[in-house]
Amino acid sequence: MSRAEARDLAARFCAAFETAGAVPVDCDILQSAETLLDLYGEDIRSRAYVTQDPALGERMLRPDFTVPVVEAHMRDGAEPARYTYAGEVFRRQEDDPERAPEYIQAGYEIFDGRDAEDADAAVFARFAELLSEWELTPATGDIGILSAAIRGLETSERRRSALLRHIWRPRRFRALLDRYAGRTPVPATRTALLEAANPMAAAGPMIGRRTEAEIRDRLVALREDAAEPPLSDGQVDLIETLLKVSETCPYALQHLRDMEVDLPALRPAVDRFARRCDRLAAQGVDVDTLDFEASYGRTSMEYYDGFVFGFSAVRRPDLPPVATGGRYDALTARLGQGRTLPAVGGVIRPDLLLALTEDRA
């Protein structure tokens, strides 16, 4: 497999997306580190290549195309709009040195608020059609359903916000859920801190960037949280049951409808799932055999907040997904200074498809 072959295959995908009405766009390889750190936090430093420019400040080699495409559209684009692109992205692979730190992506993005579920279905169906010559298995999910369940919990807004913030960090999410349910003991150091009449009296010299006022605000928040009643076992069980939903779309929909009885906040998100299933069927997708996992995408698709999907090679479980995508309305709000535009899209890795082609040869 050569880089030229990967470029040719990416160009083929872009041509197909152009046929669907997409406009070709390009993005700078050096991206603003400030924007990406704002979105992902310091965690992204372990996954991105960072450099310092004397005039522009801290920069990152492009880790993906979606962020710069959204930035450009929110600044200059009109709705509705469709874009396609291809080029290199860069990801550090320290945990898995066998994976390529630089590879080519081809992508397709739709900004259209007229019918979100129809746009979801159009993107998925287009990807399914383009990838049909390879032996791939599709999977779908919906981060919006889990988010709706969290927003429906009978607890404080602070706790709901913390759980929503850590949806994409399953271990941290699990730890918070157990703590809020009273299933894990409060650390002795925190208990002593909260019981002290004036915790700041025994504090040492101020170091770091936090001011004394910020520290005191944090102490107030910790005391308020400690006074909160625990989440009921029933609410925790509902979240745990939801995370385990993994069935074909019709059975998953039936399961989620049953859960609405105990958690009515799910209904709008499940209604969207039902409409999406109808739109997918109208696009020729076999929904009866399409897999749905409520927790799909939680470890790798951080800025998606609704429908998510991926295509994987069953015979090569060592490979990452060949294609991934989904809905990221919240990202447009973050990059659009409060202005939100419904958006959905996805990316394909030609290098992985070429590796599968070589396996067949």
Automatic annotation (TrEMBL):
<keyword id="KW-0808">Transferase</keyword>
<protein>
    <submittedName>
        <fullName>ATP phosphoribosyltransferase regulatory subunit</fullName>
    </submittedName>
</protein>
<dbReference type="InterPro" id="IPR004516">
    <property type="entry name" value="HisRS/HisZ"/>
</dbReference>
<feature type="binding site">
    <location>
        <position position="105"/>
    </location>
    <ligand>
        <name>L-histidine</name>
    </ligand>
</feature>
<dbReference type="GO" id="GO:0006427">
    <property type="term" value="P:histidyl-tRNA aminoacylation"/>
</dbReference>
<feature type="domain" description="Class II Histidinyl-tRNA synthetase (HisRS)-like catalytic core">
    <location>
        <begin position="5"/>
        <end position="196"/>
    </location>
</feature>
<dbReference type="Pfam" id="PF13393">
    <property type="entry name" value="tRNA-synt_His"/>
</dbReference>
<dbReference type="InterPro" id="IPR045864">
    <property type="entry name" value="aa-tRNA-synth_II/BPL/LPL"/>
</dbReference>
<feature type="binding site">
    <location>
        <position position="91"/>
    </location>
    <ligand>
        <name>L-histidine</name>
    </ligand>
</feature>
<keyword id="KW-0328">Glycosyltransferase</keyword>
<dbReference type="GO" id="GO:0005737">
    <property type="term" value="C:cytoplasm"/>
</dbReference>
<feature type="binding site">
    <location>
        <position position="298"/>
    </location>
    <ligand>
        <name>L-histidine</name>
    </ligand>
</feature>
<dbReference type="InterPro" id="IPR041715">
    <property type="entry name" value="HisRS-like_core"/>
</dbReference>
<feature type="binding site">
    <location>
        <begin position="303"/>
        <end position="304"/>
    </location>
    <ligand>
        <name>L-histidine</name>
    </ligand>
</feature>
<feature type="binding site">
    <location>
        <begin position="64"/>
        <end position="66"/>
    </location>
    <ligand>
        <name>L-histidine</name>
    </ligand>
</feature>
<feature type="domain" description="Class II Histidinyl-tRNA synthetase (HisRS)-like catalytic core">
    <location>
        <begin position="221"/>
        <end position="347"/>
    </location>
</feature>
<feature type="binding site">
    <location>
        <position position="109"/>
    </location>
    <ligand>
        <name>L-histidine</name>
    </ligand>
</feature>
<dbReference type="GO" id="GO:0016757">
    <property type="term" value="F:glycosyltransferase activity"/>
</dbReference>
<dbReference type="GO" id="GO:0004821">
    <property type="term" value="F:histidine-tRNA ligase activity"/>
</dbReference>
